[in-house]
Amino acid sequence: MNLHSLTAARADAGRPVRVGLIGAGKFGSMFLAQIPHSPVAVSAIADLDPGRARLACATVGWTAERITATAFTDDGIALIGRDDVDVVVEATGHPAAGIAHARAAIAAGKHVVMVNVEADVLAGPLLAAEARAAGVVYSLAYGDQPALTAELVDWARATGFRVVAAGKGTKYLPAYHDVTPDGVWSHYGLSPEAAREAGMNPQMFNSFLDGTKSAIEMAAIANACGLDVPEAGLAFPPCGVDDLPHVLRPRSAGGLLERSGMVEVVSCLERDGRPVFRDLRWGVYVVLEAPNDYAAACFAQYGLKTDSSGRYAAMYKPYHLIGLELNISILSAALRGEATGQAQGFRGDVVAVAKRDLVQGEVLDGEGGYTVWGKLLPAAASLAADALPIGLAHRVTLRRGVKHGAIVTWADVVAPTGPAVEARRAMERQCQAA
Predict the structure, then answer these.
(1) Residue 288 sits in the same domain as residue 354
(2) Range of 249's domain?
(3) What is the number of alpha carbons within 13 Å of residue 55 lying toward its C-beta?
(4) One domain, residues 297 and 163
(5) Distances (CA, A) of 345 to 18, 44, 349
(6) Is position 204 within any domain?
(7) pLDDT higher for 431 or 74?
(8) Residue 427: its pLDDT value, please?
(9) Per-residue pLDDT for 244 more than 90?
């Protein structure tokens, strides 16, 4: 409740919180738009194209003087080494780069805000443990749905409620799993030309549509909040906010959940394509259970929508503002030493699934591409299946064919190598030993 006053006091003392941003895409640009209006200082920005980063700053309203006073580079590791950076924001969206930048920042004694959920799902428990050992904060990014959901879960538990389900909304139909970047724009109501003029990346937007991004975000929530993952993957039930307590309760109580304490994503579309009434497409939710009859009676007295028993209710946030809200994570890390969500264990994993029949010699192209989509599985099931994580399914060659809808395994591919693979394997060993 006092982040603004703490930040202002530090700025007045001549010690503003200083940020280094790696990745000046859409999320980074939204964050940068707030900087002229907040006491947080951005010292340096790293992007593969520094000229594009400068243009992004100008586009979101930075003055020429502010742009000139900021360091721009194409080297994220060099940014991390700067003395005028207290908090590193990793917003590249590239899993391997995110892991490398996070580990470098932790080694340098810098806090890390990981916008790059792909990297967090690939090796987040390892990165969080390394940060704790180094005395710095590793945090999910407030404004993104995983951190906002984690906040709701923490609120529910801190007030004494049992968390039955938690997650977010999205636009989903089963056919979306097979959509490729060539067909993505019609589902967003855009022409390819309009999307191109707006600078929109079709593969990135397709990762939201084909279910991959939802799987990644639910894995991050499960790992941060100690929640379980559906055995068969996300069900994406059509559900509006008024029906959350009815749909997302355990099967033993008439709902669709295998048990209490699970993640799930709700769709804003009925299976026939009709819009869901009072949908939660842009928001997040938590379903909670009253611990006693008195609390259940209070639900009714104060107007909460409940299931028919009156014991299950939901709280939700209808929107999220992405990078516009990122300062909450930055300031929580720098001023309170707290994360706005952090992997505590390895409960959910996201595996690569073939979008069509794939043949020997094909090269996988990762999230939102032409070859695979990401499916959420319990971590134990992923490891037992020897499944290839979606975060490592980039520029990987198939050693043999994989049927449409089948999980791609390590045995199916020429195994990738490098620091990201080593970090992933280290994380698996760490969590299996715990």
Answers:
(1) no
(2) 146-172+211-320
(3) 8
(4) yes
(5) 30, 32, 11
(6) no
(7) 74
(8) 95
(9) yes
